[in-house]
Amino acid sequence: MLDKVAAVEELPWLGKAKALSTHPKSWAAAASFMWPGIILAAVGVFLCILLLMTPSVSGRYFASAGCLLAGAGILIGQMVWYRPRLAAVSVFPEGVAWSDGEGWRGVPWDKLKWLYRTEIKVNSMWKTRELRLEWGEDESVVIAATVKDWPRLASFVQERQTAARWPRAAEAFDAGKWVKCGPISISRAGVRTAKTDLHWDDIKKLHMFKGAFWLEAAEGAGCSFGFGEIANFNIFYQLLQIGLKEGD
Question: Does residue 2 lie within any of the structural domains?
Answer without folding.
Answer: no
